[in-house]
Amino acid sequence: MTVQHSQELHFAPAGSKKRKTQIVIVGGGAAGLELAARLGRRFGRRDHDIILVERNRTHIWKPLLHEVATGALDANIDEVGYRSHCKRWGYRFFHGTLESVDTEARLIHLAPLMEDGRELISRHSLRYDYLVLAFGSITNDFGTPGVREHCMSLDSRAEADRFRDRLLNHCLAASRAMIANPDDDARVRVSIVGAGATGVELAAELYNAADALGYYGLEVFDGRRLEVTLIEAGPRILPALPDRLSHAARAELEKLGVRVLTGVPVTQVTADAIVTRDGEAIPADLMVWAAGVRATPIAGRLGGLELTRSGQILTTATLQSVSDPHVFAIGDCASCTPPGRTQPVPPRAQSAHQMAACVYDNLIRLMDNRPLRAFIYKDHGSLVSLSRYSTLGSLMGSLSRGSLAIEGRIARFVYTSLYRMHLIAIHGWIRGSALILAGHVHAILRPKLKLH
């Protein structure tokens, strides 16, 4: 039976007369985890309770999910367990799913924890003095019929694992068919809707995985047995990159064998095909939807916080909700238009990192009764990895005095540096550097693909 009245939970020790300042962070993605680690290092648990609420038990950097989906990355090695991480960095981890926010009572309500239809933990609440919402985003299907029923997305590790399992099953079936009948022209057809970074990187990584399967018993299967179609409603792929790099990426994909369609909106998805506005039905064994993002929907209400049409929380220049100064929003679930800009900050990993740093500073200023600083977004450019085939992108900043297009080894170095910076941000310099070194060792010793 579901408990109707939630119980307020706080973590002040028994016998304590002073109530701790409680900062609750909802969402353990790049922004939320970085902020929790920094606040935990700063305050510890003496006079503050830094609480991270997350529905998953482990964290993996979202830009790596396309590699998890193809088996190029073993998430069991690269993921971070919240419980061990919080013990090291002085914050508390609470496993739960946000259901609603009561801004008047300064409470968040968490949904019951269910297992096989049984309620293990009842609905409950956490008080907060300051709340940081960082619950991230999911793929935006724009209400297109059939997407939810028939398409996969890469919003979480579970979804990436599911795609990998289905991909391997289809590759195995095609290999067996060709062994049984050498004249059988068996294929694995994959359609990807959305040619942003996720769609493009996944398309290239699929060919890397297909070629590597020959090492694992599928001798008759390689990239020639793949039929990958990349479908984009806009006029070109990778709109965040300059035209030249967009065209270079398209040429590289087409050289691999990807069929690239631009200016082709999708109107419907069936059980075995993507249907375009022109009426073409593109058959597919696996379909991935990667066309834009929207804020993760919350089952209940957000306490009257003002939202955009896509569900993002409208914030002031200081990243506080326009409706409540005790509530901050960072990452993909926040809509912030910094001073001097006409468009909101784009939902990128670099945005999340910069927002976490700004809110960390502003929470300290707020508790010290000092003026808060406005968030200033610094666009450092965009980078896209086409697996082992190519890396390209643009850098922006004082070194380039504008925009600098880069490709090849330099681009690959900068691309891998982004993940290294994330590791250092959540683990510190010593442990982060050790993990980077361990990653190089694992890349040599572990199998090319994760097949289980």
**How many separate helices?**
10
Q: Roughly how many Å apart are the termini?
A: 37 Å
- Class based on secondary structure composition and strand pairing: alpha/beta
Largest sheet: 5 strands, parallel
* CATH fold type of the largest domain: FAD/NAD(P)-binding domain
Strand order of the largest sheet: 6-3-2-12-23
Low-confidence stretches: 1-6, 397-402
Give the tally of β-strands. Answer: 27
Task: List the defining traits of the structure above.
five-stranded parallel β-sheet; disordered N terminus; FAD/NAD(P)-binding domain; four-stranded mixed β-sheet; 10 helices; 2 domains
Summarize the structure.
With 452 residues, this protein is of the alpha/beta class. The protein has 10 helices and 27 strands.
